[in-house]
Amino acid sequence: MPIKASTPALRDTVETIADKASMRRSVEIYVGRGFCEFETSAIAKALNTANEMLGEDVFSWRYVSETPGLLTGKCGMIVRAEPVVQDHELADTIFIVGGRSGREAAWLPRLHQMRRLGRSVALLSDAATAYIKRTKSPVGKVTTHWHHALSLKETGHHPKLTNNLSEISAGVTTAAGSGATMELVIAHIAPYLSTADVAELGNRLMLHVLRSPQSEQPNDIALMPALSDDRLKRAVEIIESSLDQPLNVCELAQEVCVSTRHLERIFKEVFQQTPARFYKQLRTKKARALIEETQLSMVEIAVATGFNSSSSLNEAIKKQYGASPKQIRSKR
Q1: Cα separations (Å) of 178 from 123, 127, 203?
Q2: For the residues 306-326, what does the mean pLDDT come to?
Q3: What is the largest distance, in Å, between two alpha-carbon atoms of the chain?
Q4: Neighbouring residues of 259: CB distance < 8 A, sequence distance ≥ 6
Q5: Angle between the 260-271 and 275-293 helix axes, to the nearest 10 degrees?
Q6: Closest alpha carbon to 287 in 103, 154, 157, 176
Q7: What phi, psi does 30 have (nearest 5°)?
Q8: Is the confidence at residue 91, as pLDDT, over 50?
Q9: What is the pLDDT of residues 143-154, one digit of tens each?
Q10: Can you list the domains of the chain with their CATH numbers?
């Protein structure tokens, strides 16, 4: 027999229950074999902390996958994932985490189902990269982790690719993920929290500053707070912007208005190495990223990173990482 809200008190109670029910949000965390544990844990931790702060379970979540059951992440963490059933039990929001499962893009059908219903979709790091590669002409801006963006820029034309923490295009959020994952989750649930609740949630998660989704990713060494010397900052900026060209230390010193000897001294103080060694280390680091993230040949990678031959590239990679480019690529 239906309950009749015959008194003001009862009507208020029924309305309160209805209001609370309308506030509850469900979340799917899409994982697969080799998923990124850091991002997966960050999503669940942010949602759980929000519930603890509110004193009730406003946000619920479950792990889903095209390959359900016990799944092992990249670093050994295990989660139990429920099966993805087409057009069934779709949540209000889905977060698709990075790692191998993000790259393989078995999640695409789920993404399309969510978009058809106007639900929220967020792709992190590897998943964002896979989506960008498959979306030749995105409606709006897109982004991914800066490490992956490097390979995207080397292998294709992506004029709408930014270096921001997250972007929204046609109802799909692409994001850097990694250490910015909690902030992404907070941005998604903020409409259901008060301003004071958002601030407290950030404090509980030990986030000193809640960055805007449009904030730039911190990928430049020149932006490190430890680089208080403006001349050193400028020298690092010049090096980072010309990794495909030979470095002349004398010209670099002239460019930042110091002597060659003084430039070498401040580099050794901060980086414990000479400008030339620092430059070679950054070139080798970029080369490794291209080996891991692209299908470019070793000759093409050598040209893109300033090595005069593939053999000199091979030697530098092996010396710095203890493995050949072929061995590194085979472990992807």
Answers
A1: 12, 12, 19
A2: 89
A3: 90
A4: 253
A5: 60
A6: 154
A7: -85, 125
A8: yes
A9: 999 888 877 877
A10: 8-204 (3.40.50.880), 221-330 (1.10.10.60)
**E strand or H helix at 309:** none
Give the residue-averaged pLDDT of 49-72: 96
Could you tell me where the DSSP H helices lie in the chain?
8-23, 37-54, 100-104, 108-116, 126-134, 146-155, 181-189, 195-204, 230-240, 249-255, 260-271, 275-293, 298-304, 310-321, 325-330
3-state secondary structure of 96: strand
Cα–chain-centroid distance for residue 107?
17
CA distance 92 to 90: 7
Helix axes 146-155, 275-293, angle to 10 degrees: 70
Q: How far apart are CA 74 and CA 88, in angstroms?
A: 28
